[in-house]
Amino acid sequence: MIVVTCLAPVNIAVIKYWGKRDEQLILPINDSISATLSTDQMNAKTTVMISPNFEKDLLFFFREESCMSPRVQVCLKEIRKRASENLKGKKNNQGIDLWKAHICSENNFPTAAGLASSSAGYACLVTALAKAYNVEGDCSSIARLGSGSACRSVFGGFVRWHKGNQGDGSDSIATQIVPASHWPSIRILILVVNDARKKVGSTSGMQRSVETSQLLQHRASHVVPQRTEQILKAIKNHDFETFAEITMKDSNQLHSVCLDTYPPAVYMNDVSHTIVEFVHSYNKIKGTTKLAYTFDAGPNACLFLQEEDVAEVVATIKQVFPPTNENNYIRGIKVPEKILDKDLVLPSGPQEVGRLRYIIHTKIGEGPSEINDPEAHLLDQTGLPKQKTD
Amino acid sequence: MIVVTCLAPVNIAVIKYWGKRDEQLILPINDSISATLSTDQMNAKTTVMISPNFEKDLLFFFREESCMSPRVQVCLKEIRKRASENLKGKKNNQGIDLWKAHICSENNFPTAAGLASSSAGYACLVTALAKAYNVEGDCSSIARLGSGSACRSVFGGFVRWHKGNQGDGSDSIATQIVPASHWPSIRILILVVNDARKKVGSTSGMQRSVETSQLLQHRASHVVPQRTEQILKAIKNHDFETFAEITMKDSNQLHSVCLDTYPPAVYMNDVSHTIVEFVHSYNKIKGTTKLAYTFDAGPNACLFLQEEDVAEVVATIKQVFPPTNENNYIRGIKVPEKILDKDLVLPSGPQEVGRLRYIIHTKIGEGPSEINDPEAHLLDQTGLPKQKTD
Hints:
GO biological process, one term (chains A, B): isopentenyl diphosphate biosynthetic process, mevalonate pathway
GO molecular function (chains A, B): ATP binding; diphosphomevalonate decarboxylase activity
GO cellular component, one term (chains A, B): cytosol
Largest sheet of chain A: 6 strands, mixed
Strand content of chain A: 15-25%
Family (chains A, B): Belongs to the diphosphomevalonate decarboxylase family.
Oligomer: homodimer
Pathway (chains A, B): Steroid biosynthesis; cholesterol biosynthesis
Radius of gyration of chain A: 21 Å
């Protein structure tokens, strides 16, 4: 019996992935670039236990038995295939590639918040499976088969997902651009927005964009390659202003393409757009690009900024987006209190309370890691979920 | 002394104008197509009085003296130039091209509602000036100098504004595609949305799009020419479904390009997007495209539909967008009462009251016209605004 527990991070794209050229293999129409967030604030946790005694594969999600989705099955199959290749001709071959697996997974943040939980989840699953089945080498292409953007959560720091050119997807992998230590001053604020509108799933939205948008292909072939080179350079040179501007422009273009989709896929709401206005106003007042926003397939904003600006920015956000209840409004890395300068004149507009649910303060972090503490396992000795105690 | 009073219509673009290649001459980067709305419901009204005794040009807006904007001056200058060319070498040349003008203009709908008031206003101004100074021939290029889309309000029915190719703008004119009588079953519902967010002006938004959007040029050169040909054919063939689909797609693409602008120009709000969802749901339930939306540089929707569907659509809208006050909620052409079929299951969602201010029901109409009744003049014998009595 082998048991492995791993943590894996969320990643936030700054050059967006939108549109597949192969639905089955999850091959994208353009490269994308992301920042991996620290697992100290947000993570997925997965325990994989494999045993010759298990009768079948079982999946538990938040400690409840859950059906094995086709995507999870694809990842398992691919890991077993690699394990089997590894074992060929080896002595002491116990045939572990045939052992069944019990998998238990959860996130420490609400799945419903639309915070890229599937990317952390599949990166964690694949990392834990690879360790359990003793598979080495690139795992990003296996994570990609679970959920495209999950391949970027396999590394820390800044990561590039190469679209690749091969039909079988073998070169559609993620690579690390720079480790988290390269740019330690970067901070991230996640603004979780209250939202009532019904959602368009990102998978179906993306598919509809490929089928109907007359702008998507132009973006993928003419805009993204240029932006990718520019932002790579900005990341390498710690050029925050260029990094921030490209990040904002690429977020805008993702949502632009979604609106050009038929029927349109609308992810940002009035609060999201108010955040965009706030960021541009703040940068204008400061006379330089201090703050960047990016939005994925939901209304929540992810802001990039530098450590030295966090206290002022958070104080400003609290003023423009007052909470219903101060308690637990700012989560994650502690933010120093700051009294705003009187001459920081903010854009007026309705100071309605409760437009944001809460804010998470985090930073760039490392890729998936194994937890060696047996207490951390989500499964007990029999392969069933432990009772939740916390 | 010569006095002329004219009415001119609003027009609603179905292939959108967005982006100038020449800011001064107002030359667009693509052709656009619009429907001219009946002046029975919405119109601009302008009285022009010219006299050898007037000392200077004066402009009154809603009967209040207003400063002569550069755009009004450009129109006046162009009309006088043509008048002077006309008069050259003629007998009885009184030199009326040198007479000063008093101009009084108003709309019968709120300017603030963002309902293309400037297009009706400049079309009316130019028509009245042309009649007063006895100028004949195409006036659309003069109206264009006032406000680009005003050139399309110079004709009734469906109208095409040709972008033209000449540097001096001489071929950037409007022409009628078909008169209003060609497709009499078309009806229009204008949904005036409650909005609190601050606005980006359409002139500055458009300019910013030209400067920053990486998708706008592709739209103008690759998407619009194709759509223009398709919608021209649909209009000529009374093909409502094709007309409706292209109209919706082109509205979406306008707002898509606005979002790809940096900083983004956002005109639609959550209520606008709820209207979009409503239209797609309604069409889905009906199994055919009964309803089309289009949005300009503001949150208000303009819906196209056929006369036979008006009663049901209005009853449905009243249910999904209940008014704060039933009184005066539906304006314009009378809508028959209709009790909704029980099996018309509408998309759920918040049935919040007051999201729409009111609805105007109108149809396709004729171009500008002169009113021969002296009572209709907005200026008295001395050239000053009459007191408002209604």
